[in-house]
Specification:
By secondary structure, this protein is an alpha/beta fold. It has helices at 24-28, 67-77, 88-91, 95-100, 103-107, 114-121, 152-155, 159-162, 166-182, 184-188; strands at 19-21, 37-39, 54-58, 80-86, 124-127, 130-131, 197-198, 202-208. The chain is 33% helix and 16% strand.
């Protein structure tokens, strides 16, 4: 669900996969080797009950207009659900948000509290910590490599930056550059120079119903 260009999908050569994506732009960017895709919304999936073994949603739940309906649909079309999302209460505490762009906290507000998403899915929850060399370009990926946020190409992969006014982002990144130059950032976050992993709030939610 919310498959985008296919970056997070299982290999369709190994498993039978059907992707759902509401954006024609995203669908147009999918590789010919990607799984077959249909245009649709999580809140109104175009499939019969229990059409699949597993419903997978990766970093998409926070974009849904009606999370409750989307979760109901996940449970309707498959007995098992695997959801990768984030807990805003933790996500908003990461330094790139709290120190430089608190406006992102408002963007991370979802229609349901994280605890309610977990309850509706009846899911087991696991924390997904980031390593120092975390490769995916999600917000928080460069928690110990702050200079990366100064690169517009790096920021372009993060929806939080894309949704804020460009002059605001540029002004705050100029402040980050100053803090890195004079050592303020390192003095403020000495623990991040040593930590092996970092919790930016990302969570794995799994429910299985036979």
């Amino acid at each position: 669900m919310g498959a985008g260009t296919g970056s997070y999908e299982p290999d369709p050569r190994a498993k039978a996969v059907v992707a759902v994506e509401p954006s024609d732009v995203m669908l147009g960017q999918r590789s010919p080797r990607s799984a077959p895709a249909v245009r649709g919304r999580a809140e109104e999936l175009p499939f019969a009950d229990r059409s699949f073994d597993v419903a997978l949603a990766v970093l998409t739940v926070h974009h849904w207009e009606d999370q409750r309906s989307g979760i109901d649909e996940l449970r309707r079309v498959a007995p098992s659900q695997v959801v990768v999302t984030f807990d805003p209460s933790v996500h908003n505490q990461q330094w790139i948000v709290s120190d430089y762009l608190p406006e992102m906290a408002a963007l991370a507000r979802t229609s349901l509290p994280f605890t309610e998403v977990v309850r509706l899915l009846d899911a087991d929850v696991a924390t997904l910590p980031m390593t120092r060399q975390f490769a995916d370009g999600v917000l928080g990926a460069f928690w110990c490599r702050p200079h990366a946020y100064l690169d517009p190409a790096v920021r372009s992969h993060m929806s939080g930056f894309a949704l804020l006014d460009r002059p605001l982002v540029e002004a705050r990144m100029a402040r980050l550059a100053e803090d890195l130059q004079d050592g303020t950032w390192e003095r403020r976050h000495p623990e991040l120079t040593r930590a092996a992993t970092y919790d930016a709030g990302f969570r794995l939610l799994v429910h299985h119903r036979s």
